[in-house]
Amino acid sequence: MDPGERPIRFLIAAQLALGAALAVAPLAQAGERGTLSALTWTDPAAARAVLLRQPAACEAPDRDAGQIEAGQIDTGRALFNTPQLLGGQAARAAISCASCHANGRRSAHFQLDGISAGPGTADVSAGFFSVARDDGRFDPKPIPDLAVPGKIARSEPGVLEAFLRTLIVGEFAGHEPPPAAISALAAYVRAIRPCPNDADQPQTMARQIELVRAAVRAAAGMAARGEPETAALLISGARHQLGLIDERLPGADLAAERAALLAASRALQPVAGAESPSPQQLRGWLAGFDRKLAPRLKAREARSLYRAEVLERWLARR
């Protein structure tokens, strides 16, 4: 038996079960689920580091790539954090581009059974993500830092876009991505830059809330441009971020906040499913989120798993 075959089969079964559960209830309590999504693909020894810190975000528009439309980089960043963009098993396992490349950098602690040989590695030709790409060998490679120039020319028009499209439909067996989504994703990848002294930054409630906001703003922009498929992807990304906040709110005393997050997520679902998502509805949702739910969530951060001492106690009970 191939070294990765048994772990992959086990993980596929486990993630299919998780995906089925999440399809019924997009948000679930961390106390009920007993884990956090990120721990599924994290070196167990690095759980604290991954949940509290991440590589810093350093971006600058790539002047060699030509003029970038306003909001393209922000939209691309939101899609980069959206598992549904990749589709297939990645989406079921809540894995986005950012899972392997946090803020576009290298996720040094990424470790997935049957995919990784050790922290920071992945076998992109394993059958877990795409049966068609399975080469029958367990051959993990170091995850690249997207701030470092690689094999793909970023400045040559269309080359990066074609690579990203092939990555989604080939490596991850996802659906054909809308051209508008690929264009925005490429703009974001081109903007990623190295950070001085390999700086990192904390994982905070405020950052997660901003990822929700950014995805909904971008969705409203795409809806206004007549790009319903990309808008729907971005709404899925916003709902994913709401779910990640929900995971960080354990215990009965935060049940009301979890219920409010679930209601907010459900309110986005019919907008995403509409043939032509309404930008007005999305802007209205965002105004209500900013006015009511976001301040309420920030006020609970001291009792959440974003706070180091609360997370330490939670990890000790696992």
Keywords for this structure?
318 residues; mainly alpha; 53% helix
Structural summary, described in words:
The chain is mostly helical. 53% of the residues lie in helices and 3% in strands. The chain contains 14 helices and 4 strands. The strands form 2 sheets. The chain has a two-stranded antiparallel sheet with strand order 1-4. α4 crosses α9 and α4 (72-80) packs across α10. It is globular and about 50 Å long.
- Please give the largest β-sheet: 2 strands, antiparallel
Helical residues, percent? 40-55%
β-strand amount? under 5%
Which word captures the global form? globular
Helix vs. strand class: mainly alpha
Order of helices and strands: HHHEHHHHEEHHEHHHHH
**Rounded radius of gyration (Å):** 19 Å
* Separation, N- and C-terminal Cα atoms: 32 Å
What is the arithmetic mean of pLDDT? 87
Q: How many DSSP H or I helices?
A: 14
Uncertain stretches:
1-26, 28-33, 63-67
* Number of strand elements: 4
- Main β-sheet, spatial strand arrangement: 1-4
List the helices and strands and how they pair.
Elements: H1 5-24, H2 30-33, H3 47-52, E1 53-55, H4 72-80, H5 83-86, H6 88-92, H7 97-100, E2 121-122, E3 141-142, H8 159-171, H9 179-191, E4 200-202, H10 205-224, H11 228-247, H12 255-273, H13 279-299, H14 308-317
Antiparallel strand pairs: 1-4, 2-3
In short:
The chain contains 14 helices and 4 strands. It is mainly alpha-helical. The two termini are 32 Å apart.
